């Protein structure tokens, strides 16, 4: 009997020791910062780093536009089965915010430049000269002449922005200025949205706090290089390689390494990179998630495959929206209602969030119009990773890429003489419950944009 009591005491002691050890391995989370506060500090650190400073300098010199989203809270907590899906939607919202900020600023710039182009030049002394018959009542005559010159300039401006002669004649002089403003607003909206393909994400961040709340943020860049590349890809134009930007590894090898290291979990959206030969290429990272608790192996695999299909669809949608965000598609898809919504929300004082809501609808329309089969698009890999900050949530992804060399390989195989790789290729020599903050891998330097 004594031996049994001794054995029971020993078992209890060991169990208690194990519990203490387990508690010791998971220290209490004491950081009082929210996930958004953690990201705000991370973004400040990024801005102080080499890439952040280089991009900020080029932004100041008007060589590109640097766009940093505010942190977006993930609606579902890290302990929720919906965290993975909410996380994907939060990344989409953060990127959309950078696009909306660009459209709003671009529209205002175009409006200012257009108005200045027509009205900055003052009337010349010859235009204001009076002959001898007009000398009497000089002040009144000058006033009439200035008004006539101003109205003539306004009529000319209205013609150049597409207002018909009949509409100009019908418009009262007092209403011509407003007519001009309205037409400039419509034109500037089309141009601004038609340049949104030049906005691409550079890096994204994710943080989770002690309260099991997550937040994400996206840093994007607009450049004319990005926009021109989108136009060339969509129109099937030959593309030149930049040998100085050759990566030293194939796109497939790059993605394989990212999947093997789990870095791929932190890369959201579309990236413009250079392949082993220096050709600019598109690599799109789509993600989704599923919860496998309480399921059979067969059921789990079915859920995983369904989630991967959704991730692949997301990856292709990134490319379609990028190629759709050009002036041609904007002109094809804008309606009077869309113009009115944009003009309303982009007036001074409106929040960027309002612009984002309208822009999202327009981009969906443009992306749907651009959903054509792009020759040379390949799936480079799929992956499945348990989210480190969300117990029980399994993230999956699909990586889809396009490059001029992929396109040419298909063209050659099908007997087409069309070529998009315009240069000779370059030979390659290489082949939970705790505060957490992660960022995506940097794929670019400031000179890429």
Automatic annotation (TrEMBL):
Family annotation (InterPro entries): DUF6844
Domain annotation DUF6844: ranges: 142-234
Signal peptide interval: 1-21
Top-level taxon of origin: Bacteria
Region (Disordered) residue spans: 413-449
Alphabetized Pfam families for the sequence: DUF6844
Keywords, sorted A to Z: Signal
Protein name, as recorded: DUF6844 domain-containing protein
Organism: Yanghanlia caeni
């Amino acid at each position: 009997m004594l031996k049994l009591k001794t054995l029971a005491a020993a078992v209890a002691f060991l169990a208690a020791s194990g519990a203490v050890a387990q508690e010791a391995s998971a220290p209490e989370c004491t950081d009082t910062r929210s996930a958004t506060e953690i990201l705000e500090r991370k973004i400040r650190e990024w801005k102080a780093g080499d890439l952040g400073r280089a991009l900020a300098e080029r932004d100041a010199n008007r060589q590109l536009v640097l766009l940093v989203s505010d942190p977006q809270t993930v609606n579902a907590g890290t302990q929720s089965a919906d965290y993975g899906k909410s996380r994907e939607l939060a990344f989409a919202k953060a990127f959309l915010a950078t696009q909306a900020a660009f459209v709003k600023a671009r529209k205002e710039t175009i409006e200012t430049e257009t108005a200045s182009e027509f009205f900055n030049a003052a009337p010349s002394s010859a235009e204001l000269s009076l002959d001898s018959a007009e000398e009497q009542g000089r002040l009144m005559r000058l006033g009439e002449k200035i008004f006539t010159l101003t109205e003539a300039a306004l009529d000319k401006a209205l013609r150049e922005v597409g207002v018909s002669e009949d509409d100009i004649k019908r418009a009262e002089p007092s209403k011509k200025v407003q007519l001009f403003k309205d037409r400039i607003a419509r034109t500037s909206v089309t141009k601004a949205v038609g340049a949104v393909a030049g906005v691409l994400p550079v890096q994204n961040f994710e943080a989770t706090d002690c309260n099991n709340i997550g937040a994400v943020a996206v840093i994007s860049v607009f450049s004319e290089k990005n926009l021109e590349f989108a136009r060339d890809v969509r129109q099937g134009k030959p593309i030149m390689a930049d040998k100085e930007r050759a990566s030293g590894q194939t796109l497939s090898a790059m993605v394989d390494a990212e999947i093997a290291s789990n870095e791929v979990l932190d890369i959201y959206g579309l990236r413009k990179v250079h392949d082993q030969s220096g050709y600019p290429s598109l690599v799109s990272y789509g993600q989704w998630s599923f919860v496998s608790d309480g399921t059979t192996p067969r059921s789990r695999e079915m859920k995983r495959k369904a989630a991967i299909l959704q991730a692949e669809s997301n990856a292709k949608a990134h490319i379609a929206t990028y190629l759709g965000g050009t002036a041609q598609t904007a002109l094809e898809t804008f309606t009077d209602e869309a113009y009115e919504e944009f003009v309303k929300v982009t007036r001074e004082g409106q929040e960027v969030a309002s612009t984002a809501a309208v822009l999202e609808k327009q981009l969906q329309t443009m992306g749907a119009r651009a959903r054509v089969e792009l020759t040379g698009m390949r799936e480079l890999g799929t992956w499945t990773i348990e989210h480190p900050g969300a117990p029980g949530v399994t993230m999956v992804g699909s990586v889809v890429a396009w490059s001029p060399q992929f396109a040419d390989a298909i063209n050659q195989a099908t007997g087409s003489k069309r070529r998009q790789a315009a240069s000779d290729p370059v030979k390659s020599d290489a082949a939970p419950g705790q505060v957490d903050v992660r960022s995506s891998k940097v794929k670019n330097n400031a000179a890429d944009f």
